[in-house]
Amino acid sequence: MAPGLAYLGLGNMGQAMCGNLVRKGNLSSPLILYNRTVSRASELSNRLGNCVVCYSVVDAVADADIIFSCLTDDSAVFETFTEILKHEVKGKLFVSCSTTQPETSDKLASMVESRGAGLVTMPGRSSVTRSMFRAMASQSSTRPQTSCILRVALV
């Protein structure tokens, strides 16, 4: 069974990646959307179809196996993940597309891993990071469906 996907943060980049996931991801269940401004998630859901809007970040994460995020800055990343990590996340994979300071990524990785989840950081603005991530995802043998989904989000 394909993993459930959620996307947190629906700015321009987040919306584009959601479009890729819905159109090219061959999803077996609707893409879960969350944005602090709910109307943005609702509008995107109406435009794309095959999406469901969550009104809290905790609910969005609870129903997903892989959680993409593209948040505005380091502060938003910490605020969001602090709330998420108050709840059960063991076994989930977080994919942070937010452009943050290296120290933020390191701290976030420690926070997430201490709760039994995984984290991949791939700032969307970096072509080098995207190329490295594509290579890493294509070599995944333990979760082939996951690597396919991660590549689709980038295309």
Low-confidence runs: 126-133, 138-142, 144-149
Using the alpha-carbon principal axes, give the shape. Answer: globular
- Topology, number of strands: 6
Indicate the radius of gyration in whole angstroms.
Answer: 14 Å
Order of helices and strands: EHEHEHEHEHEHH
Approximate helicity band = 40-55%
**In DSSP terms, counting alpha (H) and pi (I) runs of 4 or more, how many helices?**
7
Strand order of the largest sheet: 3-2-1-4-5-6
Mean of all residue-level pLDDT scores: 84
Largest sheet: 6 strands, parallel
Question: End-to-end span in angstroms?
Answer: 23 Å
Strand percentage, roughly? 5-15%
SSE-based structural type: alpha/beta
Core attributes:
7 helices, single chain, alpha/beta, 155 residues, six-stranded parallel beta sheet
Short description:
Helix content is 49%, strand content 15%.
How would you describe this structure to a colleague?
Residues 126-133, 138-142 and 144-149 have low confidence and may be disordered. The chain is of the alpha/beta class. Strand 5, helix 5 (102-113) and strand 6 form a beta-alpha-beta unit. The chain has helices at 12-24, 38-48, 57-62, 74-84, 102-113, 127-138, 144-154; strands spanning 5-8, 31-34, 51-53, 66-69, 93-96, 118-121. The longest helix has 13 residues, at 12-24. Strands 3-2-1-4-5-6 form a six-stranded parallel beta sheet, sandwiched between helices. The protein starts with a strand and ends with a helix.
